[in-house]
Amino acid sequence: DPVYLNGDFLPLADAGISPLDRGFLYGDGVYEVIPVYSRRAFRIDEHLARLQATLAGIQLSNPLATDDWKAVIAKLIEAAPWDDQSIYLQVTRGADNKRDHAFPPASVPPTAFAFASPLVTTPADVRARGVAAITVPDLRWRRCDLKVISLLANVLARQQAVDQGCAEALLIRDGFMKEGAASNIFIVKDGLLIAPPKTQLMLPGITYDVILELAQQHQQPLEVREISETELRAADEVWMTSSTKEVLAITTLDGEAVGNGKPGPVGERMWQWYQDFKNTVMRKG
Ligand code: PMP
Q: At a CB cut-off of 8 Å and minimum separation 6, what does 163 contact?
């Protein structure tokens, strides 16, 4: 299946970029991951809007108009053999002929890359049990609202989790839980759903927005406010959400059971609402 690189569709093996690409040298670029169900991209406008916001945040102009991105994505979806896919998009500040931290001249074009892969979903037995997570200090910079490719702090946090047999690392900054290494985190206490607010210290997840919309639609009591580490540990339910994980219960935190150690009722309902919502939107197209 072809990948997209700077205006062309070509086999992955033929898609080459310069070793001087600023994505490679500095992690100077942005990305998006868009889930595709039954060959339809889910929340594509929201993902492309977040891509635009991140590009603006790093002062890089978008190499493609929204409709051009949509055409690229449609072509990748069509060419791929799977019905459910994950589309990855990346834009970097391109390759100059020398290494210098400051931006290259305007004549240097950005690098734009996109490819499709099969959507990796959570097996039903894992979902039914929930997953284990750890907490770690949030060592990231202060613009976590930007979906940039410099992900070293996230990579190290997630690897710490994996080394301890866990699925996710929850990031704690100044006593508050901001999100996971690659997911947003919600908690439930006495039937109340609590979500951390969108600030510069958290990625505004596309799934996060869907969860808030579904909570409102189904009259699920909801508060959007900071979650302290103490509150996190006392929660009845903790879930992670992302485009690929959807809604996944965290049933063990730092080796301790969350609530009764099983996925809770609010999370189970939310997962079902999410499935229903996905199916409705995908049918409408
Ligand atoms: N936070 C971080 C740090 C992430 O990397 C991600 C996405 N992988 C999310 C939250 C969830 O975002 P989305 O719902 O848009 O996938």
A: none
User: Which one-letter amino acid corresponds to residue 14?
Assistant: D
- Tell me which fold the domain 2-118 belongs to: D-amino Acid Aminotransferase; Chain A, domain 1 (3.30.470)
CA 44 distance to own-chain centroid: 13
Contact 210 CB / ligand 1 (< 6 Å): no
Global confidence as pTM? 0.97
Q: What is the amino acid identity at position 218?
A: H
Question: How large is the greatest C-alpha to C-alpha distance in the chain, in angstroms?
Answer: 59
Q: Whose CA is nearest to atom 2 of ligand 1?
A: 182
Going from the Cα of 6 to the center of ligand 1, the distance in angstroms, rounded, reads 25
Here the ipTM equals 0.99
pLDDT of residue 283: 81
Strands (E), 119-263: 131-137, 168-173, 176-180, 184-189, 192-195, 222-224, 227-228, 237-242, 246-253, 256-257
The mean pLDDT values, 10 residues at a time, for the chain of 285 residues are: 97 97 98 98 98 98 98 98 98 97 97 98 97 98 98 98 98 98 98 98 98 98 98 98 98 98 98 96 77
Please work out whether the CB of residue 86 comes within 6 Å of at least one atom of ligand 1.
no
Segments making up each domain of the chain, as ranges: 2-118, 124-284
Catalytic residue among 70, 75, 98, 147: 147
CATH number for the 124-284 domain, one of 3.30.1330.30, 2.40.170.20, 3.20.10.10, 3.40.1440.60?
Answer: 3.20.10.10
Residues 6+ apart with CB under 8 A from 143: 57, 200
Q: pLDDT for 130-185, tens place per residue?
A: 999 999 999 999 999 999 999 999 999 999 999 999 999 999 999 999 999 999 99
Q: Which residues contact 239 (CB under 8 A, 6 or more apart)?
A: 185, 186, 187, 188, 247, 248, 249, 250, 267, 270
